Amino acid sequence: MILLVSVSARMLAELARREGHEVMALDRFGDLDLRALCPGVSILRDLGGRGGMAALVEAAMAIPAAGVVYGAGLENMPGLVERLAGGRTLLGCTPETLRRVRDPARLGASLRAAGFAYPRTLPAADAPVAADRTRRWLRKPVRSGGGRAVREWRGGALRPGVVVQEHIEGLPCSAAAVGDGASAVLLGVSEQLIGRRALGARGYAWCGNVVPPRLPAAERTALGAAASALSAHLAGDFGLRGLFGVDLVWDGERAWVLEVNPRPTGSLETIAAVHGSRPFGAHLDGCAGRLPGLPPPSADLPAAAGKAVVFATQTVRVPDTRGWPALGIRDVPHPGERIAAGHPICTLLATGPSPETVLAELDGRAAALRTALRDRVEAHAAA
Questions:
Q1: Based on the domain organization, do 289 and 359 belong to the same domain?
Q2: In-domain check, residue 97
Q3: DSSP state, 335?
Q4: pTM (predicted TM-score)
Q5: Among residues of the chain, what percentage have pLDDT more than 70?
Q6: Residue 127 contacts by C-beta under 8 Å, 6 or more apart in sequence?
Q7: Which DSSP string corresponds to 211-264?
Q8: 318 φ/ψ angles, rounded to the nearest 5 degrees
Q9: Domains held by the chain: number
């Protein structure tokens, strides 16, 4: 038995069960489709609070298991990861690795020394004086994820715990790789969906991925080569083991690294759909110090795949959702569940002949779902 501990564990559980692994999931949603995949424990708390992750780790301590895999929400909490690993095999990056690779100053120094592009990034104390105001800047919490709380910065005092990073124009992308502590194999590159209004997202919030990125073929090739070199360097310099992700901006010529996510990333199910990879097994191989082999190209696989996280723009109460998984919907809320504005409703998955057609399908399905939920809210209010 392997424990999966994450803000949302459904994707990890689905990938693991598809490959025949016995898992137990601990997360903060307890979605309908997760409950159908494996046993688990859910701590339903405010998603912005640290307390919920601490409660998940506390619950995990009472469950006997040979190993544990952590996902989103714990990469910024090395102390909790250290506690989670007590008495079992930690299948992922060590707490010390997390501390190093999530430090913007260390990450930037490593990348620049190796000749890779990293935006100018200033600590809160230096930014008001050192930032060139003719450039665009973003204010980012050092301990955050999914683009939450990232804002434009035009000057002024800053609280501790944030950095100011130069805004890079280009296509937001994400590389998914698996490391063995010394090198890495690239599984694939996706285009990130950021603040997409059709999905109810705003600002710089992550709301999905599309594989392959919407780029000319030559640029896709160049981006893939850059992502492969970056992943190998980062794995070797920071000792990354297992699945990890690198957030990038492709400016047409170079891949600019924004940050590293030293745990399984949300793009994995789209990359697996297009490339036929087995991400969970690759993760276990990397953690054991082995780089996995990649499957050969297959004409039977779709040319493109995507996922879209649909957010509530107003508080809604969902209808009977038991048929949603058969419609390509994941992270399914329970029938009658109340979802507050700004929180995720569900995830849509799609495949197709091109990233453009996949994205159009996801937008259309999100609009139809939102209309159905809005009609339900209005009917309920009228009653």
A1: yes
A2: no
A3: T
A4: 0.93
A5: 96
A6: 137, 153, 158, 163, 164
A7: ES-SS-HHHHHHHHHHHHHHHHHHHHHHT-EEEEEEEEEE-SS-EEEEEEE-S-
A8: -75, 155
A9: 3
Identify which of 21, 10, 22, 95 has the alpha carbon closest to the alpha carbon of residue 63: 22
Check if the beta carbon of residue 159 is closer than 8 Å to that of residue 151: no
**pLDDT tens, 108-150?**
999 999 999 999 999 999 999 899 888 999 999 998 788 888 9
Residue 128 structural domain: 120-166
pLDDT in tens, 301-334: 999 999 999 999 999 999 999 999 999 999 999 9
Q: In the sheet where 121-123 sits, what is the strand order? A: 121-123, 162-166, 137-141, 151-153
Quick check: is 194 in a domain?
yes
Between CA 76 and CA 66 the distance in angstroms is 24
Question: In terms of domains, do 361 and 261 share one?
Answer: yes
Distance between CA atoms of residues 150 and 62, nearest Å: 36
In this structure, the answer to whether residues 192 and 152 fall within a common structural domain is no
pLDDT category, 14, cuts 50, 70, 90? very high
